[in-house]
Amino acid sequence: MDYQYPISQHWSTEEIVDVIRFFQSIEKAYEKGIERSVLMQAYRRFKEIVPGKADEKNICNEFEEVSGYSAYKVVQKMKLASPEEKIRL
Q: In 10 A of CB 55, how many CB atoms?
């Protein structure tokens, strides 16, 4: 990983850690696969920190630009998956 995660200076340290955990879950979905429940928990926490759709889109697009990983595609696959399914792209 040779990039920085998109973060806001307005977030607390705990929020920054949780947003990074969400993006690490996206990376894991691409690299090895991740349990849907783990990804769902990370996404729900991310949405508590970034509730607005426009902000979510901007941050996720920023992450995709630097990493090449699409959070949108992973989240869409997660939403369509069965509870016990492993998410992998």
A: 12
